[in-house]
């Protein structure tokens, strides 16, 4: 990471700041003392003062005293800011009534100390993740090397840079000799996966070099060299079975190949591949330079000696996620462990969403909720005849974005993050400890690190202290032990900004002591703002919040109308925030809390402590910027956060300054951060919004929209070649059961394809089956086995096909009972059954006979987790209920109440919570003219309703059918 060096402009700013401080702190009192004298009178006689005449000298005396007070207040502000800057601990204290004065003092002190020898951070570092607590006791040079921070001390940086350069130089000189001494070049062949285990460079380094952190040495030795399959190693986490890795000279282990020509346990083909590979590296010419390892990889051409214009600050070593491990709280970027050369374009899927697992999980969950809501509303309100049918199938960019969400989402990571934070809040509340202020969270290889604003003592178990007392850490294994707890979300303002190495940063916007500014090109800033807004609106670790968008994102309000609101301009924003700031200050004072954290998870758990996050993409004018700075000075205590865009990068009152580059890098030099930014570009944003607007329950469908996406020939001539029974226990007719352990995997893949007749992206299929990631060869092997299992139609056409867009589709000869059920209902209500009563009754009866229980009733535990992303669990009960209601209506037309009751009871076995079925069952039972039976049914309904009571419409219907039902039910007990 590069840290900007002091420039001539910095020295000029520091000099001017020194002059200004000298004038204000020394010159002003000296001038007052010489011209107006000491501000206090020689005697204290208040009564005599009141009797004196009011004259010009009286006014001058009062004015002089006010000026002395202003000087004293400014001096106090300077002292407070100097103490906070030099100590580097906590947020500067607030001097009462000194908003503008303290802001001016802060800027002058920062300008002065930025080039000073003792420039310490105003807030803790966001980039020192990885140190142990003991590391903080090391000498200054070691600390400078390991801990890049906010306003890191320049002398320590210089010492650390010099030490790093010296170490790299000595390493460079010693490496060739070490290589010659330790023997010939060694090679390792990447092993194929075993079960869910995949080889990784970390594990290889751990086995053969004794330290997994030396994986970077292996990476540098083999970077960009052509592998036997024609592809190249470009990222340390992207390796594939069969690849060959040249190893450092000190590598040890039985599965290393040192002399391929004389290694009988290695096949001739592999020996030839290793020999060819050896000729492509620098090691073939006896260089041996690669053993310089990660130091040179990180230093590179930065190690130019003391004359360079930049200082290299080494990040703490981070363990990379193994091929089977979990990035964030679960896994690395989906399937990044193996992307084939021909898949470099990610099959056309948006990379921005593939590498944003928390954002994708939030969007996917919110989209599923929106679609279920639309289904239920259309079912109970009868909108547009779409009852029980599929939502509109997305196309084009919207379809690609939906597939990217399915592949990239990490709902398990979101669940663990939410449980971990709520569990921490519950533990602290049980111990009567307040919540600490958290600036950021790091998700690193399954572990969660919280960075605190200041030391807060020992965390509750199973949390542990991290690299120092401002870090609390929770291991993933401990996070899995947390259960759901009934407590408010403690840090709902956390939002992903990007990744650094193998760690993902979530910044807590509501805790930042001031404004967070974002500079860069307008389109790049818009992508960051859109990502932040979308994740805040849909994340799973927040209860509720208000997100105000200004200058962008009016279309994004469709994602979460209850959270997102759009304002037209900065004037409206300032008016709104001034009123809310006053209201929150008053509410905090009345409740006796010093900040929103002490009231959010305490006994009261006030709902008004939900955060309000302001995302202002339009650059404010200087006057508006000053007003926002004043509002933001106390915002972190009130639960209000500000993210403001600026083209110049210079924003008054900005506590943290960040810049987004055209290459997608998020830079914050003073924070010691350089991230791969999480973005939501304009095209992807429009596609996401399209998905949500199409699923809007209040939006009428375009066109008829009543036919299922796949209709089956239900005549005798339409008998399928392969028939799968999904409604109830899973059975397949027409295929032999696959042998071995892969049978369950093939059955699951076929079920996913049957539920998506429109086609399934290959990456969506593999992500559903292997949510922790899979290599491309394993995925291809599965598809080959699936094609072989399904076979071909009589004309030789394979039953598993690939369409023009690369998506997998099934032939029409492969059918499920759900397809037949949909087709029968459609034909009965919109086809031949409309004109023929006899045909309608037969079709509806046949449809209801297909229903044997819930979808995939006997699915094994741990599989079919992708069903949580689907809405078929809501569609099937509605479809069955519609079928039962239509058949009951068919029988009631001929006064066959018993037949109608039989049909309704059959539907209730699959849709027991559908109020429409119970209401029709009450009407059909009433038609039997049997009050005792109707009373018994009413008692059953009351018992099923429990403490919630009967739904209002059902209660009103019982009042009409059986006015005495309450007394009868009470008498029945």
Please outline what is shown here:
TPR repeats lie at residues 881-914. Helices cover 44% and strands 11% of the residues.
- Major sheet, described briefly? 14 strands, mixed
Give the low-confidence spans.
117-183, 283-346, 382-388
Distance between the termini: 74 Å
The beta-strand count equals 23
Name the average pLDDT. 78
CATH class of one domain: Alpha Beta
List keywords for this structure.
973 residues; alpha/beta; Rossmann fold; 14-stranded mixed beta sheet; 3-stranded mixed beta sheet; 32 helices; 11% strand
Structure commentary:
- Residues 816-962 form the Bacterial transcriptional activator domain.
- Keywords: Membrane, TPR repeat, Transmembrane, Transmembrane helix, Two-component regulatory system.
- InterPro entries: Bact_Kbp (IPR052196), BTAD (IPR005158), LysM_dom_sf (IPR036779), TPR-like_helical_dom_sf (IPR011990), TPR_rpt (IPR019734).
- The chain crosses the membrane at residues 57-82, 103-122.
- Residues 251-270, 278-346 are annotated as: Disordered.
- The strands form five sheets. Strands 7-8-6-5-10-9-18-17-16-11-15-14-12-13 form a 14-stranded mixed sheet. The protein has a three-stranded mixed sheet with strand order 20-19-23.
- α13 packs across α21 (682-694), α25 crosses α27 and α28 (897-908) packs antiparallel against α29.
- Helices cover 44% and strands 11% of the residues.
- Among the domains are: 8-41 and 58-89 and 101-110, no CATH class; 186-258, no CATH class; 411-691, Rossmann fold (3-Layer(aba) Sandwich); 722-869, Orthogonal Bundle (Arc Repressor Mutant, subunit A).
- It contains 32 helices and 23 strands.
- Mean pLDDT is 78; it is low at 117-183, 283-346 and 382-388.
- The chain has 973 residues and is an alpha/beta fold.
């Amino acid at each position: 990471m590069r840290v900007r060096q002091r420039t001539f402009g910095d020295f000029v700013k520091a000099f001017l700041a020194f002059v200004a401080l000298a004038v204000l702190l020394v010159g002003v009192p000296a001038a007052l003392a010489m011209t107006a004298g000491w501000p206090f009178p020689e005697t204290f006689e208040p009564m005599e003062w009141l009797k004196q005449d009011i004259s010009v000298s009286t006014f001058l005396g009062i004015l002089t005293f006010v000026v002395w007070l202003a000087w004293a207040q400014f001096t106090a502000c300077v002292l407070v800011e100097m103490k906070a800057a030099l100590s580097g601990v906590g947020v500067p204290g607030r001097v009462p009534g000194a908003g503008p004065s303290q802001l001016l003092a802060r800027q002058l002190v920062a300008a002065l100390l930025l080039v000073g020898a003792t420039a310490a951070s105003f807030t803790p570092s966001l980039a020192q993740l990885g140190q142990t607590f003991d590391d903080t006791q090391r000498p200054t040079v070691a600390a400078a090397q390991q801990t890049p921070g906010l306003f890191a001390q320049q002398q320590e940086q210089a010492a650390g840079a010099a030490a790093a350069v010296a170490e790299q130089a000595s390493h460079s000189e010693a490496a060739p000799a070490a290589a010659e001494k330790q023997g010939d070049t060694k090679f390792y062949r990447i092993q194929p996966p075993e079960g869910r285990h995949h080889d990784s460079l970390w594990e290889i380094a751990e086995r053969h070099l004794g330290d997994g952190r030396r994986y970077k040495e292996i990476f540098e030795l083999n970077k960009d060299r052509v592998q036997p399959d024609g592809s190249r190693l470009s990222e340390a986490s992207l390796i594939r079975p069969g690849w060959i890795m040249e190893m450092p000279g000190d590598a040890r282990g039985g599965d290393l190949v040192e002399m391929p020509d004389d290694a009988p346990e290695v096949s001739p083909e592999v020996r030839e591949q290793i020999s060819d590979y050896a000729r492509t590296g620098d090691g073939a010419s006896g260089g041996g330079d690669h053993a310089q390892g990660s130091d040179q990889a990180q230093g590179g051409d930065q190690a130019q000696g003391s004359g360079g214009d930049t200082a290299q600050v080494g990040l703490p070593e981070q363990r990379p996620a193994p091929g089977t491990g979990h990035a964030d709280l679960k896994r690395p970027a989906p399937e990044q462990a193996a992307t084939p050369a021909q898949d470099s374009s990610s099959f056309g899927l948006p990379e921005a969403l593939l590498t944003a697992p928390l954002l994708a999980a939030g969007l996917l969950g919110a989209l599923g909720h929106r679609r279920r809501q639309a289904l239920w509303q259309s079912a109970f309100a009868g909108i547009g005849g779409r009852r029980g049918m599929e939502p509109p199938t997305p196309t084009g960019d919207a379809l690609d974005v939906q597939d990217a969400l399915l592949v990239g989402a990490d709902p398990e990571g979101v669940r663990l993050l939410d449980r971990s934070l709520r569990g921490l809040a519950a533990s602290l509340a049980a111990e009567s400890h307040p919540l600490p202020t958290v600036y950021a969270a790091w998700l690193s290889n399954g572990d969660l690190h919280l960075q605190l604003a200041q030391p807060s003592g020992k965390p509750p178990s199973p949390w542990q202290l991290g690299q120092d007392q401002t870090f609390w850490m929770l291991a993933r294994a401990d996070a899995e032990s947390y259960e759901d707890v009934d407590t408010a979300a403690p840090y709902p303002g956390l939002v992903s900004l990007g990744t650094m190495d193998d760690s993902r940063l979530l910044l807590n916007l509501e805790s930042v002591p001031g404004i967070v500014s974002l500079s860069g090109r307008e389109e790049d800033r818009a992508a960051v703002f859109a990502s932040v807004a979308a994740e805040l609106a849909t994340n799973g670790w927040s209860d509720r919040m208000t997100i105000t968008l200004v200058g962008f994102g009016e279309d994004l309000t469709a994602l979460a109308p209850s959270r997102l609101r759009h304002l037209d301009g900065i004037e409206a924003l300032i008016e709104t925030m001034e009123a809310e700031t006053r209201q929150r200050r008053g509410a905090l004072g009345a409740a006796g809390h010093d900040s929103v954290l002490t009231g959010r998870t305490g006994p009261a758990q006030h709902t008004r402590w939900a955060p309000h996050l302001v995302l202002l993409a339009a650059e404010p004018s200087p006057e508006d910027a000053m007003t926002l700075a004043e509002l933001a000075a106390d915002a972190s205590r009130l639960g209000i956060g500000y993210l403001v865009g600026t083209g110049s990068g210079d924003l008054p009152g900005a506590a943290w300054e960040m810049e987004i580059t055209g290459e997608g890098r998020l830079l914050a030099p003073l924070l010691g951060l350089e991230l791969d930014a999480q973005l939501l570009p304009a095209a992807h944003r429009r596609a996401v919004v399209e998905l949500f607007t199409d699923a809007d329950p209040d939006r009428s469908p375009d066109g008829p929209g009543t036919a299922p996406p796949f209709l089956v020939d239900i005549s005798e001539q339409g008998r399928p070649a392969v028939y799968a029974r999904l409604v109830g226990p899973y059975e397949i007719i027409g295929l032999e059961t696959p042998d071995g352990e892969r049978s369950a995997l093939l059955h699951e893949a076929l079920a996913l394809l049957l539920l998506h007749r429109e086609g399934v992206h290959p990456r969506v299929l593999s992500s559903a089956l292997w949510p922790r990631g899979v290599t491309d060869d394993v995925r291809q092997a599965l598809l080959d086995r699936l094609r072989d299992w399904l076979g071909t139609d009589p004309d030789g056409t394979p039953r598993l096909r690939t369409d023009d867009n690369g998506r997998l589709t099934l032939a029409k000869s492969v059918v499920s009972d759900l397809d037949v059920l949909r087709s029968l209902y459609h034909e009965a209500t919109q086809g031949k059954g409309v004109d023929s009563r006899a045909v309608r009754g037969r079709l509806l009866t046949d449809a209801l006979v297909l229903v044997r229980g819930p979808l995939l009733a006997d699915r094994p535990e741990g599989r079919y987790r992708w069903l949580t992303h689907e809405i078929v669990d809501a569609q099937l009960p509605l479809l069955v209920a519609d079928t039962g209601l239509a058949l009951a209506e068919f029988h009631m037309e001929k006064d066959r109440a018993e037949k109608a009751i039989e049909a309704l009871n059959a539907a209730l076995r699959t849709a027991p919570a559908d109020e429409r079925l119970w209401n029709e069952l009450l009407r059909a039972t009433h038609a039997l003219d049997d009050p005792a039976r109707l009373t018994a049914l009413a008692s059953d309904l009351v018992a099923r309703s429990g403490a919630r009571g009967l739904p209002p419409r059902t209660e009103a219907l019982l009042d009409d059918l059986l006015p005495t039902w309450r007394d009868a039910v009470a008498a029945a007990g």
